[in-house]
């Protein structure tokens, strides 16, 4: 297996090299910047696998892909928080969170080996990932939503919305004055529009506002039931696989 490491912190690169050697994987090359990587890929045969740091000394490593068509599989290494890492989960890209753990590294390598002989293809929109990697505090989210009521458009501040939910192929918002309004969007689209510090997707059917939570109750099969201040038309259940993330969101 032909492997290279792209990492601007040389001690971290050397540590990862030693960890890979412990797995009987030889690292042939270590690169430390966007520019150095572009020059190297321009004149060398591309490796089977790249361990690639996201933030390099001279920019984001995605800039390498703007200049060169990479033909290798990639495992990203990153110190970004869990919110940013959803970018990689959504795009089915493997990643390792720094400081890299021996067991996590071995799992990632074995996952790569299991995919052979098929080569991963980088058919990923890195622009979308870059947007998701922006610090959530620096991002701009929707502050208002509109709904058509007869011949009129009604405007709602996010502060006045308890939850968004889907029903009968429609998406609705529920307000603090206990009313429902059909809106022209989907829950999937809301993922990019709602501040993740204020809204959480409890299941495929609901996004809830943290300021609207009245009670949290243990529910069957390790799930949680959420009671909001006014909404009581349906049970709001936190899916079991989202309970851990939900508890972290509350803090």
Automatic annotation (TrEMBL):
Q: Which UniProt keywords apply?
A: Phosphoprotein
- Identify the Pfam families for this entry: LytTR, Response_reg
The answer on whether this UniProt entry bears the keyword Phosphoprotein reads: yes
Q: Where in the sequence is 4-aspartylphosphate found?
A: 53
Q: Which SUPFAM superfamilies match?
A: CheY-like
In this protein, which residues make up the domain named Response regulatory? 2-113
- Every copy of the HTH LytTR-type domain together lies at 145-251
Molecular-function annotations in GO: DNA binding; phosphorelay response regulator activity
The name of this protein is Response regulator transcription factor
| Species of origin | Aquimarina algiphila
């Amino acid at each position: 297996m032909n492997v290279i490491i792209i990492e601007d912190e040389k001690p971290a690169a050397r540590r990862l090299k030693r960890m890979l050697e412990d797995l009987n994987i030889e690292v042939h090359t270590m690169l430390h910047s966007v520019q150095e990587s572009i020059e190297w890929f321009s004149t060398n045969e591309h490796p089977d696998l790249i361990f690639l740091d996201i933030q390099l000394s001279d920019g984001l490593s995605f800039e390498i892909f703007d200049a060169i068509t990479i033909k290798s599989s990639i495992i990203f290494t990153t110190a970004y928080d869990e919110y940013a890492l959803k970018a990689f989960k959504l795009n089915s890209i493997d990643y390792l969170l720094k400081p890299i753990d021996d067991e996590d590294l071995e799992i990632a390598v074995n996952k790569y080996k299991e995919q052979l002989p098929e080569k991963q293809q980088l058919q990923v929109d890195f622009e979308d990932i870059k947007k998701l990697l922006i610090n959530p505090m620096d991002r701009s989210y929707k502050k208002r939503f509109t709904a058509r009521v007869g011949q009129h458009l009604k405007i709602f501040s996010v502060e006045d919305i308890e939850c968004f939910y889907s029903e009968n192929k429609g998406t609705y918002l529920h307000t603090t004055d206990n009313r429902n309004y059909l809106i022209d969007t989907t829950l999937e689209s809301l993922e990019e529009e709602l501040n993740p510090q204020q809204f959480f997707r409890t299941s495929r059917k609901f996004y809830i506002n943290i300021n609207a939570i009245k009670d949290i109750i243990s529910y069957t099969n390790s799930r949680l039931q959420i009671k909001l201040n006014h909404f009581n038309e349906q049970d709001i259940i936190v899916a079991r696989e989202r309970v851990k993330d939900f508890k972290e969101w509350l803090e």
